[in-house]
Each structure stands twice: as structure tokens, then as C-alpha cells.
Design brief:
By secondary structure, this protein is of the alpha/beta class. It has two domains: 214 residues, 3-Layer(aba) Sandwich (Aspartate Aminotransferase, domain 2), CATH 3.40.640; 136 residues, Aspartate Aminotransferase, domain 1 (Alpha-Beta Complex). It is 37% helix and 15% strand. The strands form two sheets. Strands 1-7-6-5-4-2-3 form a seven-stranded mixed sheet, sandwiched between helices. It starts with a helix and ends with a helix. It binds pyridoxal-5'-phosphate. The site of pyridoxal-5'-phosphate has 17 residues, from helix 4 and helix 5.
Length: 392
Amino acid sequence: MNKDIMTRLVRLGEKIPQSTSIPKTVPIYMSSSFSFDDVETLEDIYNGESKGYVYSRISNPGQDVLKEVIVGVEEGQAAQVYSSGMAAISMSILAHVKSGDHIIAGNVLYGGSYQFLKDELNKFNIEVTFIDLKNENIEKYFKSNTKLVYMETISNPLMEVIEIKRISTICHEHNAKLIIDNTFATPVVCQPLKLGADVVVYSATKYLCGHSDVMAGVVISDKDTIDKISHTGCLYGPTLSPFDSWILTRSLRTLKLRVKQHCDNALKLAQYLEKHEKVKKVYYPGLASSEYNSLAKEMFNDNLFGGMLSVDLVGGEKAVWDLIRVLENIKFVPSLAGVATSLSYPVKTSHRAMNDEELKKAGISKGLLRISTGLENIDDIISEFEEALKRI
Ligand SMILES: Cc1ncc(COP(=O)(O)O)c(C=O)c1O
């Protein structure tokens, strides 16, 4: 190239090397935008006459590969991917409502979702009624402007299981959509679309990624709904980066293996803790003593009940603080679903936006410790709890 060094620096190495070999894994398309030989080619893509990429906020090959895996695993029609679980949740909700609409939501939810529904939607004049979906008669809360119901399959942090079929039937009788956060269950444990949900959302930051190194969110639904959510998402802009799309796709390859081990370990740990004198109550739907056990057996696959459990400790808040301090090898992390077992204290982390009255109403006590069971050998996890409980 007979040009100045500045020109050579910016123009060389721009073409993808031609090759007859096919890469074994899909490469990362680390490109914000795409180029075209002429305007007609770009027009054809915009008009849907040919398949192509324009700008990575709209779509990127790595996102499409990720969507293909997610749609196949969840057995839905279409998916969209975002830069966090909250982005997936907020885009899915905002795509369905306008000023003056009404939403019904479960009263035990991840704190961020609760805050978004309670405070953020208020700014748009969207009313949200929080109810106890297990015990209250949801029928009486529907209004002519109720557009959707929002809930979690396994609620954070009390591990309640709510009957999806019943809620979805009532929703559809009232022309409302059911959006379910399936983060704690994963598609290995439960597939809400098969039980009548219209939209499934995930914080993919958790089990779908599973290694505590990516922030991501995904939404699965029918094609028209995903088009609608994608349009909203494209305008707000919480796009998933090409690198994170790639690493999440790779992580999904081992989802079933990981989730099975998380679930097996959680059940054994719950059974152990249930008998411990310093534990008042264990919240885990896999326990025969859980009020959700028979429903969970009906709704969940392969007798799996998730990797998350919570415990109410004798000694309340002080016992939680002490246990966190003495469990030296088990980290205190305000997240979950990594390969290593970790602890969280909901009232000071995920649910810190709830005031005392809201926490009481939801049944979240100050002695509640949430455990994300990892993939370690279960005997090691149990003996560490045994030792630590002796010291508090
Ligand atoms: C059940 C649940 N849903 C959604 C979220 C939000 O996901 P993210 O942190 O990826 O935005 C979380 C985060 O902890 C969660 O636990």
C-alpha cells in the first residue's frame, strides 16, 4: 500500500482472512458495526429481504448463536439477550405497558425487580399491586387495564413455588400476559412456557453463565412478543456485548451437568441443616417437610429442586453475621449460582430496598441466610457448616 504510515495503520488488516476451513467454535464478532458494498445491500437487510447485520445494538452474530441455544433449550419460539437480568426484566415489562396500565406482581421477588415495579414504573403512571400469589385469590385484583402478571418460579429468597398453570389460566381469562423470572429454577429444572407462561426471563448472570464472570439477561417468548420486546430494547439500548454473548454460549454447554450437581448438593445440605439445633427453619422445596414439595414435584423435571436454599438461624441477625464470619472458605457474595458455594444476607443485599414493614409482610426475617450451593464435594460443604455452626 503506497500510502502514509497513518493511513496504513488504520486501513490494513480489515478483511476477514479467506479460508476453506470452518472454525470449530463460532468466533467472537467484536465489531460494533458492519460495512456494505452499496446502499441496496443495506436496504435489503433493513427491509428483511436478506439476512445481515447492521449495528451490534440491534443484532450481532454472537447474539444470534446464543439465542439459538437458548430457544432450543427453553423450547420457545424466539429469544432476545441483554446486558443484565434487570435489562431483560425491564425491557420485557416496558414493552407490554403504557401510562395508565396496571400490573399484578408477587410480593416475594428479587429486590431489584421489586424496586423497578414499585418505584420506577410509578414514574410512568403504571400501577402495580403486589399480592401473595400462593394464598390470595388473584382473580379479585384484575382490573380492565391489567396488562400483565409478574412472578418468579422459585421466589428469591424464600424459595416459594407458585402454581404456574393456575396463574396462567387466570391471566389468559383476563387477556393479561404472564411474565416469569425463572432464574432460580433454570430450564433444566422447570420450563414455564410449557406450563402456560407467555414470557420467561432470566438473570443469565446466575446459573446460565454459572461462573460468576458475566452479567447478562435473556428473554424467551413467541416471535411477535420477542419482536415487540426487541424494539423496546433497541431504543433503551442495554445490548449484550459480543464477548459476553460468546462466553455465555460456551457456559451453556455445561448447564445441565452443573445444575444437576447444584441441585443434588442443595438437597443434601438442606436435609443436613434441617436437623441442626441452631437452625430454626430451612426453606427448600426439595425437602419432604416443605409446603411446596408436592407442587414442586409436579412442576419440576427429574426430581430437581434448584441449587438455592435459605435458613432461618436461631439467634437471628447476630447468628447470621457470626456464621458469615466463621465460614472462612465459603464466601459472602451478594450474588449466586457460581461454581463455589456462597452466602448472601438478603436484608442487607438483594432485598435492602425493602423497609421493615415490607420485609415482614413478605416473611423475610433478619435471621435469614441465603445459601447458593456450589459444585464442591457435598461432604466438604457439610463438614464446613458443621464446624462453623459449632463456633457460633
Ligand atoms: C431472581 C433474580 N432475578 C433477576 C436478578 C437481576 O439480575 P442481574 O443482576 O443480572 O441484573 C437477580 C439478581 O440477583 C435475581 O436474583
